[in-house]
Each structure stands twice: as C-alpha cells, then as structure tokens.
Fold:
Amino acid sequence: MSASTNINPDQCVWIATTTNNINKVQPVVRREFVDIPTWELPEAELSKYKPLFDAVYNDWKRGDILTPEMVGEIWYYNSKADYYTAPFISGGGLPMVSEAAKRVLERYDLGTTVFHPITLMNSEETARTTSEPYYLLNVANKRSMGNYDVLGPEGDNRAPLNNRHGIRFRPQSGQEAELVVIPEALGGPDIWLDPKVPEILFLSDALVQGLKASAVDEGWGLVRCAVGTL
Structure:
C-alpha cells in the first residue's frame, strides 16, 4: 500500500477470497465436465463439451450472464464431515450460494445478478449433497477497483497478466487485504467485480453486515480492505 494513499477509516469493502483460493475448498464440478480435464473423452464428446467448458470457466469472469446451457442442472459436491456445506461455496472458481444466503442477498442492490438453480449431488448420484437449494451466483456488475499494482500472477507480484481477454491481474493469496478501493467504486450495486481482477468478488460493507447478522457469511472467505484515494 503506497504511503501516499489517503485512507478513509470510516469506509471499507470486503472481498470474497474463496474464489481466489480454490485449492482450499472441496471441488464442485458440473456432471458433464467431470472427465473433460483428462482430455480422454471420445472426440465426438470432447468436441461437444470443450467449448462449453471453456465458455463457463472464462465467460463468467468477465461478468457476462451465463445461459442455462452453460450452467447445467446437476453438479457434484461430495460433502464430508470436514467440509461443511457453507452458505457460500466455490469449488472451481464458480461461486454458489444457498437458499438462505440468496434470501439475504436479495434484500440489497444486486444490480445485474442472476441466481441459476442447480442440484448438488454426490458423484455417484445416489443422494443430494444438501436438501437446501443452491444457486450459481452470476454477478455481472463491473466497477474499477483501485491500486492494481499490488496484484499480479504468481512470481512477479506487480506484473500484469496478459491473456486472450486482455490485461488482467491475478490476486496473490493473502494479498487481498493490501488492496485499496477508490471511493467511486462504492457508488453502485452491493456486489460487483472488477474486469481487471476477475477472480474475486467485491461486497459492500452493508451487504457483509447483513450476511453476518443472518449467519450466512461462512464460506465467503471475507477479507476487509480499505477505501481511499490513491
């Protein structure tokens, strides 16, 4: 954080770091995508699902609205004793919320946000993982965050990540609290993403306090970050 940054102690935003730390949560994967990462499917099946797989795991990060075909209906989530089915889960970078969390979110300004209904099953499809409905949380609100210089891909902490989507930044795990959000970013819906930092979700303080008051803040991996003028 730059010494010249002017921090407002009365304001803050929150970051859902679960989407940035996907190795720390139990995998959640769409039924049709289970075998795709091995690239051992017959060519006909591979050509059918690979574009869909690529679309889901890339397009959502741009804040696009996913189609029902991209989302699918059944997702595998093998809940175990050490993996509590939290109100917010993100097994592959795709955020999912419970019915209880959805009801709290809907009390706030969500802008362009879609809740896609999904069914969580164990991988043998013998039982639902949870009786509570879950939804893929598809946030399409976009606002600029602030001091991108504290972000970067693994290795160089300040280097931009260049890919087919343009220049983006990949947050370092544990670096999220170093972010500073400019005051202008607070003027809009209570949940959003920054197109240059697509791997994390930003939440307003009001929304986070509402999640906490209703005890549906587990699983989000919430980290508080400052608001200030750079």
About this structure: Residues 68 and 76 are 17 Å apart (CA to CA). The mean pLDDT is 80. The longest helix spans residues 43-59. The first strand starts at residue 6 and ends at 16.
